[in-house]
Design brief:
This protein is of the alpha/beta class. Helices cover 44% and strands 16% of the residues. It has an eight-stranded parallel barrel with strand order 1-2-3-4-5-6-7-8, surrounded by seven helices. α2 packs parallel to α3.
Length: 251
């Protein structure tokens, strides 16, 4: 099965991404039927571990969404294991330098393009497991831009061969810039930073994604040229919907 995110980008379509914090194959199965193009299992801040990631991938697999993962850190052991488990893309937090971006690419690619160890125990379900060249071409490498240091090194990060996209973490980026950790910001100065990240990435043929809290802000980001945006997460969406319905019931 081809990487659906890459296929969407090749066709000029933006990608609506979902975020899975709940460690449940059933909730992943439900989210996979909501219209998302891809779903990201969050092992950094979600209540997820490796086995729940596998269950989530199994739950979403029949519905054709692309399985992604946000790993907890830029560490080759967990990155390789998540790829072996079937992730077709790795979103990695706190990538601040060119060297860190190069290390991330190396962990995601088999030799000669990287240092990934061979043992694709589940990833063969999604494609030719033994074809290391195909795997190198298929897997998305997505460093997160979420600090002032990363902004200062942005041009060098997106120049690293093998970086497919960058992903903005607005809360951590806000904190790093001395602001409250908010998302869906509308301040002109913050929107200018978002535009700068997207434009710098595009200059190097790299896509840009961002985390949002609403479909409306996601649409706004697509209007600004972003290629991928995530709408909240599964637990947040559940709570938002539940609060709306209980408020309606109580008047």
């Amino acid at each position: 099965m081809a990487n659906g995110v890459k296929a969407a980008w090749a066709a000029g379509r933006p990608v609506v991404n979902g975020w899975l914090a709940i460690p449940s194959g059933f909730s992943a199965e439900v989210m996979a039927q909501a219209g998302f193009d891809s779903l990201t299992v969050d092992i950094q801040h979600g209540v997820q571990d490796y086995m729940s990631m596998i269950a989530c991938f199994q739950g979403m697999q029949p519905h054709g969404v692309t399985p992604l993962v946000r790993v907890p850190w830029n560490e080759p052991g967990i990155i390789g294991k998540c790829l072996d488990g079937g992730a077709k893309g790795v979103i990695c937090p706190m990538v601040n330098t060119e060297g860190e971006a190069r290390a991330l690419v190396a962990a995601c690619r088999y030799p000669p393009k990287g240092t990934r160890s061979f043992g694709p125990i589940r990833s063969g379900i999604y494609g030719a497991a033994a074809d290391t060249n195909a795997a190198n071409d298929d897997v998305l490498v997505i460093p997160m831009i979420e600090t002032k240091t990363a902004l200062d090194n942005l041009d060098a990060i997106v120049s690293v061969p093998g970086v497919d996209a960058v992903y903005i973490g607005p809360s951590d980026l806000s904190l790093s810039l001395g602001m409250d950790p908010k998302q869906d910001r509308q301040e002109p100065e913050f929107l200018a930073i978002l535009d700068r990240i997207r434009e710098t990435a595009a200059k190097h043929g790299v896509k840009a994604g961002i985390h949002t809290m609403t479909g409306a802000y996601t649409k706004q980001m697509f209007g600004r040229g972003f290629n991928l945006a995530t709408i909240m997460n599964d637990s947040g969406l559940m709570l938002t919907a539940a609060r709306a319905q209980t408020a309606a019931a109580k008047g």
